Amino acid sequence: MKRIVVLGAGLVGKAIVLDLAGRYEITVVDIDEKNLQKVSQDRAIKTKHLDLSDTKSVIEVAQNFDLVVGALPSSLGFRTMKAVIEAGKDMVDISFLPEDALELDEQAKSHGVTVVFDCGVAPGMSNIILGYHNNKMKVQKFDCMVGGLPVDRIWPYEYKAPFSPMDVLEEYTRPARIVENGKIVIKPALSEPEFIQFDKIGTLEAFNTDGLRSLLTTMKIPYMRERTLRYFLIRIQ
Q1: Cys-Cys crosslink for 9: which of 35, 53, 173, 213, Cβ 3.0 to 4.6 Å?
Q2: Percent of the chain with pLDDT strictly greater than 70
Q3: Domains in the chain with CATH codes
Q4: What is d(CA 77, CA 98) in angstroms, rounded to the nearest whole number?
């Protein structure tokens, strides 16, 4: 049985731990004792209280496992990834870090490790789906529509962050990289808004966000962009 450590016991980290538990020997690490208690209360999952902003601590804990899963806020993502590589361990990370993870490519190769970054729903699953179809046919245009919207629309936001709220704000402010005519173009976040109608859902608003990530390098497709969907808000006082 492989020994896996999950760094971060927040909303997403907890889901990862519960999904892996039973098939692997799982340890989850977090600075928040309450988060650790929530994760371990239903199953026999090992927990470790640790400040993961300390890269030396990350290296020390990573060395005891076969695989590291990163589920930390984006502000800790890059340095954590770098520390895990230094520890010589393979890693899967979902932190949606603002830095370019490919800057660590040579370091990873020199340590003989594999790091799969941005491995969430989007970016993550969306990248995998595009890669699959691009192997089956010649894709000319890729429009990735993402949302993660709650069923219950509660005013004023009509949205519930399924991950770190700070990272949600980052998504709304980070410039969006898209591909036009085979070239990378940088546009403001929230730019080029449009309304899209969905049956049984209603009108949603779509705008540019920076979710293509590694696809900008790995895919040679003339047109690619990510569009984030949100409920279209109309309030009459």
Answers
A1: 35
A2: 97
A3: 3-116 (3.40.50.720), 132-231 (3.30.360.10)
A4: 8
Structure tokens at 107: 């370091």
Question: What is the β-pairing status of strands 46-49 and 115-116?
Answer: unpaired
How many CB atoms are located within 10 Å of the residue 235 CB?
6
Report pTM. Answer: 0.89
- With 70 as the cut, is the pLDDT of residue 179 above it? yes
Nearest of 66, 55, 224, 204 to residue 133 by alpha carbon: 224
Interval 31-75: pLDDT, tens: 999 999 988 876 679 999 999 999 999 999 999 999 999 999 999
Strand locations in the chain (E): 3-7, 25-30, 46-49, 67-70, 90-93, 115-116, 141-146, 176-180, 183-187, 194-198, 202-209, 223-231
Task: Classify residue 158 by its DSSP letter.
Answer: -
